[in-house]
Fold:
Amino acid sequence: MSEALSAAQEFLRCPHCAVSIKIDAGVAKCDAGHSFDVARQGYVNFLTNQTFIKNADSAAMVKARQKMHARPFFQNLALQLAQVCESLCRDISVPVIVEPGGGTGFYAHAATQVASSSAAVSFDISVHAAKVCARQSNRIAAVVADVWQPWPIGENSADIVLSVFSPRNFAETKRVLKSGGTLIVVAPEHHHLVELRNRFNALNIQHDKSETISALLGNFTKIEQFVHQSTELLDGQAMCETLLSGPNGHHLKPNDMEAILESKPLDVTHSVSISIWKLNIDERQSE
Ligand SMILES: C[S@@+](CC[C@H](N)C(=O)[O-])C[C@H]1O[C@@H](n2cnc3c(N)ncnc32)[C@H](O)[C@@H]1O
Ligand SMILES: [Zn+2]
Structure:
């Protein structure tokens, strides 16, 4: 079993009945007898028969995103997020980072490299993403789960929830965060990838204004917000990987991809906002 899954046993909960689980001999079992196989690649699949699988990344999308992550904008973003995590966790002996919709665990991985004593859990509905996540790091427990459902993790277990371009279930975020814990949200600005979207008539990104996020986060106080932005010259291959990595990846046809691969390089704006929110201590204690 992966070290990370072993370490996460104390927080993970059964997706059927929310009681604790134990992982032994490649099987995760709850006290009520529900059991889930741990794949030989090191992830555990907590999807239930009731899960309606939608928007799970395909193997091709996961591969494209891995390549995209190697580019300077994403490397710098990961480093910045890791540094934020490190400064938030300095006084915590074993900080726990939870990444819903964590994909390959790229950002949690960066955080565990910098915040060296930390443990991380990534939830993603894509088995392809979980496989890569488990392979990439023995510090991240890779769990296949639907983050629109109750997360299979106990309340008060996370020091940080890291939400990067992922579905945002703030009710669950609040439940699993410890009192005074931190939510980090990375969301695209309205002009993120605009040149690329215009050239290929691609889907618009969902740009949530800070006020929208703020309205949904009534129990949190924003402590910081900044924009990470740069322009990168992308060739056909990089443009294709970028489009495949996002919502367009679910719709691109082989013909579309051929046309993108053959097109001329383009300067593309990359721009995301990073906002950092503390769960109000009073809110948690008053429950
Ligand atoms: C745009 S990707 C971002 C992945 C990762 N945070 C990153 O930036 O590299 C969105 C991720 O959310 C996952 N996802 C979509 N719907 C989900 C759901 N209901 N539950 C869990 N994961 C989901 C997808 O499989 C995908 O890995
Ligand atoms: Zn159970």
Remarks:
- Residues 55-57, 65, 101-103, 106, 123-126, 129, 146-148, 164-167, 246 surround S-adenosylmethionine (ligand 1) (CB under 6 Å).
- The chain is about 35% helix and 25% strand.
- Residues 16 and 106 are 28 Å apart (CA to CA).
